[in-house]
Amino acid sequence: MFSPVDPVLLPIFSSPWPTLIILSSYLLFVLKVGPKLMKNREPFDLRGVIKVYNIFQIVYNSWMFLYTIHFLFVLRAYDLGCMNTLPLDHEHKDRERYFSNLYLINKFIDLVETVFFILRKKDRQISVLHVFHHVSMPFAVYIGIIYNGYGGIATSYCLMNVMVHVLMYTYYYLSSVSESVQKSLWWKKYITISQMVQFAIILACITYSLSQPDCTVPKVTSYLSGILAFSFLMLFTNFYVRTYVLADRKRRD
To answer: d(Cα 118, Cα 35) in Å, to the nearest integer?
Structure first.
């Protein structure tokens, strides 16, 4: 039975069907329809569109980062040692809903990145990690909001993730300016390192909350968030080792 914890939902999220349809359509296009449509076509030149997209993501994620920092450290709406969702009648509840909805919507906007890969025939960039990450994030955030409520322990996830995305999309934008600028960028691997660090920090936050005897953070939500963060940590670590450690050894040999 579909019974969200918080009855105040955006219309698109008041039913699970839009989320399921969007993610199913994404998988169908990425794994089947897109590659088939592009098989005998020339790749699209999307450099201008991608630059606009990257700038949009930088601004969007920067706003979420600043807003969440203000919510956590200026308004101090949460006990940082036990980040539980705010009561429905709390004075900052609408702010909590606001940044949570912004974050969830952005997880769906992130899907556009893979569509660009397909249209540009950059299929090698569409790895298992990439598809799993892009599908699991909006689904997990949506399920969390429905059954746990807005914000709470997931806010640590949100804060770390948007910070990494600002770094990532800044790199993407700079690398799209020109070949000379792209060659001068030396910090690509540090984006992957920052992704691994974010999941390690998230795991630490979840572990600390669970270790507090008086903390009422839902254990099921915390465990599931921890499992997802640990899965991403392992996958990104594997990617880093294969891409930067083993590849460097082969080049030196």
So the answer is: 6
Pick the catalytic residue from 70, 92, 133, 165.
133
Q: Is the dihedral of CA 163, 169, 171, 177 positive or negative?
A: negative
Per-residue model confidence as pLDDT tens digits over 150-161: 999 889 889 999
165 is catalytic: no
Dihedral-angle region of residue 149 (phi above 0 means left; psi in -120 to 50 means alpha; beta otherwise): left
**pTM for the full predicted model:** 0.91
| Each residue's pLDDT tens digit, 87-113 | 999 999 999 999 999 999 999 999 999
What residues does 103 pair with on adjacent strands? none
Region class of 39: left (phi > 0), else alpha (psi between -120 and 50), else beta: alpha
